[in-house]
């Protein structure tokens, strides 16, 4: 099977094509509009998606290991069950995104806007003694929903949790200050 190019993806996006299950590893789709595109179960490891508009896209079960989504727009994007290991979402806009069941390990959400996003990561793991931690430093998590997860090895310093709902969230191994959780709604979690 021939490797798809940036041009193939752009043409397909305009035609409403589905790229479900395709191998798009290391592809450069920076600053493109891919709104509403079906990228479920796609291999986008190492992809350059910097400042790409992926609003309303389906990235369920996608492999985004090491992908660069810095400054990307992911409004209401589905990332359920996606592998986000070492992916960069720094300064990205993930308002209303669905990240339930995503693998977060070394994922960078610094200054990302996750307002009203649903974040559930039962597989949040610490990658080893010298590995990078998943970080939500200075991220906007206002009104976000975290449910039944252990935020092990996650940095939350300076994050805005105003109105966030933390349902059975274990913060015992997260890095944060009590003030960071001001305004959060908690239920049966360990903080």
Uncertain regions spanning at least 5 consecutive residues: none
Mean pLDDT: 89
Any idea what the radius of gyration is? Answer: 16 Å
Distance between the termini: 50 Å
Helical fraction equals under 10%
Beta-sheet strand percentage? 5-15%
CATH architecture: 3 Solenoid
Quick one: biggest sheet? 4 strands, parallel
Strand order of the largest sheet: 1-3-5-6
Number of helices: 1
Number of strands: 6
CATH class: Mainly Beta
Shape descriptor reads elongated
Q: What class do helices, strands and sheet pairing give?
A: little secondary structure
Spell out the helices and strands N to C: HEEEEEE
Q: Which fold name is given in CATH as the topology?
A: Pectate Lyase C-like
Written overview of the protein:
The chain is elongated, with a radius of gyration of 16 Å. It is largely without helices or strands. The protein has one helix at 6-15; strands at 118-119, 134-135, 145-147, 154-155, 165-167, 185-187. The mean pLDDT is 89. The protein has one domain: 3 Solenoid (Pectate Lyase C-like), CATH 2.160.20. The protein starts with 5 loop residues before the first helix and ends with a strand.
């Amino acid at each position: 099977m021939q490797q798809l190019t940036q041009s193939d993806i752009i043409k397909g996006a305009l035609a409403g094509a589905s790229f479900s299950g395709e191998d798009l590893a290391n592809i450069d789709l920076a600053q493109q509009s891919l709104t509403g595109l079906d990228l479920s179960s796609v291999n986008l490891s190492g992809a350059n998606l910097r400042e790409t508009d992926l609003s309303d896209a389906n990235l369920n079960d996608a492999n985004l290991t090491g992908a660069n989504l810095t400054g990307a727009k992911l409004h209401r994007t589905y990332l359920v069950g996606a592998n986000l290991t070492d992916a960069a979402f720094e300064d990205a806009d993930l308002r209303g995104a669905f990240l339930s069941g995503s693998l977060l390990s070394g994922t960078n959400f610094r200054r990302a806007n996750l307002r009203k996003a649903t974040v559930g990561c039962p597989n949040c793991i610490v990658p080893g003694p010298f590995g990078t931690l998943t970080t939500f430093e200075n991220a906007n998590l206002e009104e976000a929903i975290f449910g039944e997860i252990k935020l092990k090895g996650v940095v939350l310093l300076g994050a805005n949790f105003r109105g966030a709902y933390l349902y059975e969230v274990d913060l015992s191994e997260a890095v944060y200050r009590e003030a960071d959780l001001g305004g959060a709604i908690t239920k049966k979690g360990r903080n």
